[in-house]
Amino acid sequence: MNLAQLREHYFDRLNPIEQLHIGRNQAVEVRPLDPERFLLERNPQARHSYWIRTSKSLDLEPRLHSSVLAYLSDSWLGLTALTPHRVHKLGNDLYVSSLNHSMWFHEQGLRADGWLLVRASSPWAGQGRGLSLASVHDRHGKLLATLAQEGLYRQR
Questions:
Q1: Which domain holds residue 128?
Q2: pLDDT higher than 80, residue 87
Q3: Is 113 among the residues known to form the active site?
Q4: What is the pLDDT of residue 116?
Q5: 129 Cβ partners below 8 Å, 6+ apart?
Q6: Can you give the pLDDT at residue 22?
């Protein structure tokens, strides 16, 4: 199920901000491998895996798909650092901002409109910041890119 379907499925268990925002970005399709853990549980291992792609086919030069992956990777990666600390990753009580976002591309010809498997983890979070790392693979398991994002997380 994608995030819009999961929002409907878990609606009563989401907080009002999550009910309003999860699955509303119509440009991106995200399908968590373990939806309940992704949306509703603390995860002391700070690990998530999910499929991601653009919702529509993209008629772009191949090199521009890397730029689209940069946009896609910013949608959920930074929240990985919150998973050991919060059941609800979104809320009025939390300010989240990206401080740094780096990407390394290992293969040419990636398609942002094709399913990409993101394996995300967070080795550290503390003092209002967190580090999230991820590998991005194609449907056949080939490593396409590696991501790193440092986020700022503040209680309001």
A1: 3-155
A2: no
A3: no
A4: 97
A5: 99, 150, 151, 152, 153
A6: 86
> Which two structure tokens, joined as six digits, stand for 43?
């995860």
Q: How many domains does the chain have?
A: 1
Catalytic annotation present for 67 = no
- Count of Cβ atoms closer than 10 Å to residue 132 Cβ: 28
Q: What angle do CA 29, 30, 34 make, to 5 degrees?
A: 155
Rounded Cα distance between 136 and 130, Å, is: 20
Please pick, among 45, 55, 98, 108, the residue that the annotation labels catalytic. 98
98 in catalytic set: yes
DSSP 55: S
What would the two tokens of residue 67 be?
């730029």
Q: Is the dihedral of CA 42, 44, 49, 54 positive or negative?
A: positive
Closest CA to 152 of 79, 60, 48: 79
CATH of the domain at 148: 3.10.129.10
Catalytic residue among 19, 66, 74, 138: 74
Question: Among the ranges 35-44, 81-90, 92-101, 102-111, which has the highest mean pLDDT value?
Answer: 102-111
Give 129-146 pLDDT, tens digit per residue. 999 999 999 999 999 999
- Indicate whether 112 pLDDT > 80: yes
